[in-house]
Amino acid sequence: MKKNYGFLDDDEKLNENSESIRYREYKKNIRNIQINFEQILSEFKESLNYYENNSPKQKDHYIHEFLLNNKKKIEELENLHKNGIQNLDIMKNYFSHNSTYAIEIARYLSIFDKFKIQLQNVKNTYDKICLHNSNSNKNSNNNIYKKKEFSSRFTNNNDIDQVFKERYALEYSISELGNIISVGQETNVKLKVQNYNVMHQLKKINFINNYLPQIQRILKNIKNYNMKKTIILSVIIALCIFVFFMIR
Question: Can you tell me where the transmembrane regions are (predicted)?
Fold first, then answer.
């Protein structure tokens, strides 16, 4: 049965709609994971700022609550990042043939690459605070004189403040690097899509070139056929005129 390639049949439309629905569901899930990750990360940073701005005495009182709450936050961030990457891998495997979907998936992958860097920074900061707290407790138990204890804490607090400053500088540098990587990944995907379109057009041109001699041969035959018809018609008309005048 002859098929009209200018229109999609019902089955093709159904498959296209089904794919669009499935993609929107995955995208909605990824978007929710992104929102939850950013919210928990923001809560961790607020908690960290509150800890940094407290006095040494308040820090000692607040440290146990800080460590317990933020350990749970880090675990939540790890699970969210893991789920997001798994979903994006599925999306990449099933929807990358669509150029629009491929660009969007690449953008989300770059976002979760940044999340991975931010998560590692959070874990490093948490580990440093745990180490600092452990050292402070040891010093507290081993020191007898209050003056020496105060001096040790003051030095440790200066050290941790310096660590925080270095962390902020590192986070800024990593963020800038993440932006550059994101732009590079999006450019790479766009170039792949353009390359696919160029190859598709080249295939069409090659297809036409392969059949061009046959088309030219058909046109030549049509031209010869029309010329023969014209000659025959001219001869018939000439004979008719000749017979007409002979009869008169």
Answer: 230-247
